[in-house]
């Protein structure tokens, strides 16, 4: 299914596509104790912050087929909270709904891993919302394991 899907560095013109996926990222967060508008603002602000970072090594990659974008991944340097070593992290990964199940996410994660290895990192870190069972299963199938769990209780 991944035939003819290419991975390339994102261009400034890809920002529109990336932000088009923001509502999907906000939706799958499943944070029912927050208003939808708050979650959407958080997601938009986070994308803006991640794409605007220039102080750490980073890369944003686009998966496309026939010059149509299908998904993106953003990876950057991160300080591991256990070992204090610099490693890679994937703060953003999204696949367009029409491209779900085509292997796009897997290709993007492979590209992020290759980038992290090229940087000399031993670890690749990511965070996923606890309620996003689909994403958690996806990452576990790629070999990721839970290290810590952040918990919250609405009062």
Automatic annotation (TrEMBL):
All residue ranges annotated as the N-acetyltransferase domain in the record: 5-155
Keyword Signal attached: no
GO molecular function: acyltransferase activity, transferring groups other than amino-acyl groups
Signal peptide (UniProt feature, chain positions): none
Acyltransferase found in the keyword field: yes
InterPro entries membership: Acyl_CoA_acyltransferase (IPR016181), Bact_Acetyltransf (IPR050832), GNAT_dom (IPR000182)
Coiled coil: none
Keyword terms of this UniProt record: Acyltransferase, Transferase
Protein name: GNAT family N-acetyltransferase
Organism: Thalassomonas actiniarum
Phylogenetic lineage: Bacteria, Pseudomonadati, Pseudomonadota, Gammaproteobacteria, Alteromonadales
